[in-house]
Specification:
Shape of chain A: rod-shaped
Number of strands of chain B: 17
Strand order of the largest sheet of chain B: 3-5-8-11-10-9
Largest sheet of chain A: 6 strands, antiparallel, barrel
Radius of gyration of chain B: 30 Å
Distance between the termini of chain A: 75 Å
Largest interface: A-B, 70 and 71 residues
CATH architecture of the largest domain in chain B: 2-Layer Sandwich
Structural class of chain B: mainly beta
Oligomer: heterodimer
Number of domains of chain B: 2
Number of strands of chain A: 27
Largest sheet of chain B: 6 strands, mixed
Distance between the termini of chain B: 39 Å
Helix content of chain B: 10-25%
CATH class of the largest domain in chain B: Alpha Beta
């Protein structure tokens, strides 16, 4: 005999509207009595098909959902216990969630291992208790077909046994727990940069025959005393030569036969000649014109009694002068370069400047291999905090557990002629 | 009788040595391309401890209840101490060494130690079977079935003993079956026996510089007839010097006997 259609509008007791109303009331009740919890779907990273597990599971999504804790008088389970592995919190509970709300909020094939229902292995984070729970079992048939439908899931959960799974949900409150509790040492690897502390200077700027400035490419850091700058030497100077030309008995022009180089001051032009009265005379009144340290022309002196020119001598420019410069520091950084001697005979050259090594780079590690240019390379001494293991208080390591360095005690106790073979790996 | 205080920390040192063997076990996790993306140094601790310290250490803040436990981890403990009669040695043998900073004038000595087997259990608790297998495989190949460590047992006597640590057995529990609401736990229990020795108190004695033996044809009637005196050569030698011996053998027919009280022949 079929069911009474006055009371059963098709699939089970009640009609669709009644069922909808019933579900709405349940959702309302869950919103009133429940707690805000985050549902974290598990993402399988490298599923082990042989052992049937995934050690690398990660949790990179979170969905805020209201959940009702069915155990209102505390947790089931043994609570805090001490065992061979230290403190363990065995607390079980059951969260009740609305099926429709879960499907609206969470259900998506891209985020779930199996879509359409909550997954065992997914995590629930309850901010109120600052606790993570792992879903052990999804009960979908309680209450059992009341009014002919199943409006809620009951998530049987235990407190999560955390095994350094990745938590990248974007919710800082959740993600920071990984930082605190993960034992993954690779998370605490720090990449040191290699580099130099020294300032880097550009090529000195030569205008004409002298060095006029030195550009700063980078000012370096950590200088206590200013580095010494050394500018490469100029070319040797060259003595200019010239000959004199007569027009009648008058000195009319000079011909520059060698312009020379490196004249930082006007040379003396000495003209020795035989005068019309047959005496030998000397004249030094001609005026040289210098351009960029070179003799470009000579303005002849007034000489009208010249019978013949014996010789024209241009005085020596002297030795070439090497330019020098000093670095100016501001807060340990080279901020400017003063040219103290501009030098001479730099015409046409591209001088270089070398800067003394920064020996004030305290705390940095000097690398064994210098760079190709001879500049010493350092591991840069940044202010970083290097942590090798989670700070989680106990059971972390026999050393910290014992309150002192048992490794060194063991050195006193153990007589390893080689290294400890157990896991003492280089990584 | 037993009141002379001493503490060689024999079992404590044994425990430190045992624990130290397993203090650097690693678990590595690889992605599907085989790249290592996580490297975990497995925590290790001596398991029994003050209960209040456990709670205060691991839960100093009562809001620190995020997780049930962090895995993997290992614990170990002493599970038994038993006399090992098969390694018994003569009890009057002395172990002597020159006392430090005594300029060779004083010797430390100690009598034969007693052989004891100390049983240890090492527990491995992991979240996944793979982690457990990684840990176990880093341990088992070293025990055939023993792994011998040299332990500096009594530093003042320079006694370094090779102590074999024997892997007796492994039990493995993976409680996956049953209700879905029961937690799965992968726990290995490795049982070991460390065959160590326990030393009594170290004592000191002065250096004997002269030994004299009087030989008799018959006692007590006859008088001493031959005397053998052995002294170090040179006589100024101390215990930590390189020295030989001078043996002086003297024959007597004067019908006298040695009086140890007066140190004369009478």
């Amino acid at each position: 005999m079929a069911v009474n259609h006055y009371f059963q509008g098709g699939n089970g007791i009640g009609n669709t509207n009644e069922k909808r109303l019933y579900e709405d009331l349940i959702i309302e009740g869950l919103k009133i009595y429940g707690h805000d919890c985050y549902y974290l779907p598990r993402t399988l990273v490298n599923r082990d098909l042989i052992l049937g597990e995934d050690s690398l599971s990660k949790f990179d999504d979170s969905y805020l959902l209201e959940m009702y804790m069915e155990t209102t008088e505390g947790f089931a389970g043994e609570q805090e216990i001490i065992n061979k592995f230290g403190l363990e919190i065995r607390e079980d509970t059951t969260f009740m969630i609305s099926k429709r709300r879960w499907q609206d909020q969470v259900d998506h094939p891209a985020t779930l291992i199996v879509d359409g229902r909550p997954n065992e292995g997914d995590i629930i984070y309850m901010p109120l208790m600052n606790s993570f729970f792992e879903i052990q079992f999804v009960q979908d048939q309680e209450p059992f077909f009341q009014l002919g439908n199943l409006p809620v899931y009951k998530l049987r959960c235990t407190r999560w046994e955390y095994s350094s799974e990745r938590l990248d949900t974007g919710i800082n409150e959740i993600d920071e727990k990984e930082t605190t509790y993960s034992l993954d040492q690779l998370q605490y690897q720090t990449s040191l940069e290699s580099g130099t502390f020294g300032a880097v200077l550009g090529s000195p700027v030569v205008i004409g025959d002298v060095v006029t400035s030195i550009p700063i490419i980078s000012g370096g850091e950590g200088y206590v005393t200013a580095p010494t700058l050394t500018i490469s030497a100029p070319s040797a100077t060259i003595n200019a030569t010239a000959s004199a030309n007569l027009t009648g008995n008058t000195l009319s022009t000079f011909t520059i036969t060698n312009a020379g180089r490196g004249y930082s001051s006007s040379p003396t032009i000495t003209v020795v000649y035989v005068a019309t009265d047959s005496t030998t005379k000397t004249n030094t009144a001609s005026t040289p014109v210098l351009t960029n340290g070179q003799l470009t022309s000579i303005t002849p002196a007034s000489m009208t009694d010249v019978l013949s020119i014996t010789s024209v001598t241009v005085s020596s420019p002297g030795s070439a002068v090497t330019a020098s410069a000093t670095a100016v520091l501001t807060s340990g950084v080279v901020t400017s370069v003063n040219i103290t001697v501009d030098g001479s005979s730099y015409l046409g050259l591209s001088p270089t400047v070398t800067i003394s090594e920064n020996t004030d780079a305290s705390g940095a590690l000097l690398l064994e291999n210098d760079s190709a240019d001879g500049e010493k390379q350092y591991f840069i001494n940044e202010d970083f905090a290097l942590q090798t293991q989670s700070t989680y208080a106990s059971n972390i390591d026999l050393d910290s557990e014992a309150g002192f360095d048992t490794a060194s005690v063991a050195d006193d106790v153990l007589d390893f002629t080689e290294r400890n073979p157990f896991g003492d790996v280089d990584f | 009788m037993f009141g002379k205080y001493f503490y060689n920390e024999s079992m404590r040192k044994m425990t430190v040595a045992f624990g130290q063997l397993f203090n650097s076990i690693q678990v590595k996790r690889v992605d599907s391309s085989g790249n290592v993306v996580q490297s975990i140094k497995v925590p290790l601790a001596y398991a029994p401890k003050e209960k209040f310290l456990t709670r205060l250490d691991q839960q100093p803040n009562l809001d620190n209840r995020e997780f049930a436990i962090t895995l993997p981890r290992m614990g170990f403990e002493i599970t038994g101490i038993a006399y090992d009669g098969s390694r018994k040695l003569t009890r009057v043998q002395k172990y002597k060494t020159v006392k430090a900073d005594a300029a060779g004038k004083i010797l430390n000595y100690n009598y034969t130690p007693v052989p004891y087997n100390i049983s240890y259990s090492l527990y491995v608790f992991t979240a996944t079977a793979e982690s457990g297998l990684q840990i176990i495989e880093q341990i088992l190949p070293f025990f055939q079935p023993d792994y011998t460590v040299s332990i500096k047992q009594v530093p003042e006597l320079n006694i370094v003993r090779d102590v074999p640590i024997i892997l007796n057995g492994i039990t493995y529990e993976d409680s996956y079956d049953g209700s879905y609401t029961n937690r799965r736990a992968v726990i290995y229990t490795l049982t070991f026996t460390a065959k160590t020795y326990l030393y009594g108190p170290a004592s000191t004695q002065k250096v004997i510089k002269e030994v004299q033996s009087d030989l008799f044809t018959d006692t007590p009637v006859s008088k001493r007839e031959t005397r053998i005196v052995i002294t170090p050569n040179p006589t100024s030698a101390d215990a930590d010097d390189d020295f030989g011996f001078t043996t002086t053998i003297t024959d007597f027919n004067d019908a006298k006997n040695y009086n140890p009280t007066t140190d004369t022949d009478e």
